[in-house]
Input
Amino acid sequence: MVDTMALLHPFSRTARTARTAPRPAAGLPADDEVLLDAPDDRLGPALVAAARGEHGPAAELLAGTRARAEWEYRDRYTRRLAAFARSRPEWLQSWSATAPHDPDALLVSAQVAVDRAWDSPARAELLREVSPLITAAARGDDRDPVPWRLALDHARGANAGHKYFGELWEAAVRRAPHHYGCHAAALRYLAASWQGSHSECFDFADRAAQDAPSDSLIQALPSRAAFAYLTDGHGVEVPRERLDAAADRAIALSVRFPAADPWPAEVRNKLMYVLVRLDRWQEALTEAHRIGPYATSFPWSRLSDDPLAMFLKVRADIRTRTDGPADPSRHPQNERAGRARSGDH
Output
């Protein structure tokens, strides 16, 4: 029998400092039970097969998301499969050789190419070379918004102008008006192009959340704008009420999902950080309980080269603050000293 945890080690690392870390508050998983970017029950078998060089389960998984129009799952699985393919490419190479026109293989290959270009000092030039791959993926299934999310990321990295980006945005929302991935990509573009003008980013996020269903991940978009503001360190000050409103909206979304559910884990991890920065410690503890064992690279990779250790440190700080008076000077510190992480795009 295949050792799943060994095969998926890069995706589900347990804490390395469990013996010295403080005991978590009652009901929280112990440090050595916390996983980083743990795959769900559908993605896990595809990654195990990919580790053996087999592409069939990944192909079946993505084909199913396309057939059922599960665009949020499709987006998430594409990112995770592409990340795995960067270190273990054999299965994707075999898939592409076997089915060169498969829209799912084209999509993963385009994501890999964008990720690799993003890491390079020659990012803009390399991204221009990637354009045909994104076009091919978009032509694979005209209903699919995920290639358009990828195109939005590509446009930001290539320093595209507002007019061109707007055309991509219209094409994306025409396919899926409430697709979280496309909205997050647009928010990142706006933040970069407006160079820290956070009020415009909040305006965009608030409008999108107001228009989206109450159970849509877009309800967490304003808290993503809040995270960007709280970690940016420059730009016009955003009123505290707006930050609290963004957190409140994300909390309302979080309570709609069961505790320790991997699907909203990234939303909850980001929300926990925002609540800590807003000195809302008790609510941050509640969110830590909802997160359970599911730590995610985002947002902690923005603050540290060891996102799991950062998550555990902040969680321990929350426990300490909720056991006594809050100390604002002990907010999470950015260990990256402003350095951008290549995977943050």
Notes: The CA atoms of residues 102 and 140 lie 7 Å apart. The chain has a mean pLDDT of 88.
